[in-house]
Amino acid sequence: MNAGMIKKLQKLQKEMQETQERLQMTEFTGTASGVRVVMLGSHQVVDIKISEELLEDVEMLQDAILAALNNAVEVVDKTTNQEMSKFTAGMGFGGF
C-alpha cells in the first residue's frame, strides 16, 4: 500500500470513529399507543412518557412499553446502519 492510500484509510477510520461516537450520544425516539421512549444510540433509555389513559389497563401499558422500546431500538439500529454504510459503500464490505 502506498502512503496516500494509508492516509485515506486512516482518515476514513477517524471519521467512522467520530460518527460512531456521535451516534452513541444521539437521542432517538420510539413510540407506540401512548408511550414515548427516548433512547441514546448506545441503547440506554433516558426517558419514558406514558399517556394517562394507559394507566387504567396494565396489560395494554406493558404491551405499549415493549412496542415503544422495540421501535426505539429499530430506529437506533436503522440510523446507525445508514450512517455507517456511508463508509463501507464502494469498499465491498456492505452494511454493518
From TrEMBL:
<comment type="function">
    <text>Binds to DNA and alters its conformation. May be involved in regulation of gene expression, nucleoid organization and DNA protection.</text>
</comment>
<protein>
    <recommendedName>
        <fullName>Nucleoid-associated protein N7603_08025</fullName>
    </recommendedName>
</protein>
<keyword id="KW-0238">DNA-binding</keyword>
<dbReference type="InterPro" id="IPR036894">
    <property type="entry name" value="YbaB-like_sf"/>
</dbReference>
<comment type="similarity">
    <text>Belongs to the YbaB/EbfC family.</text>
</comment>
<dbReference type="InterPro" id="IPR004401">
    <property type="entry name" value="YbaB/EbfC"/>
</dbReference>
<keyword id="KW-0963">Cytoplasm</keyword>
<dbReference type="Pfam" id="PF02575">
    <property type="entry name" value="YbaB_DNA_bd"/>
</dbReference>
<feature type="coiled-coil region">
    <location>
        <begin position="2"/>
        <end position="71"/>
    </location>
</feature>
<comment type="subunit">
    <text>Homodimer.</text>
</comment>
<keyword id="KW-0175">Coiled coil</keyword>
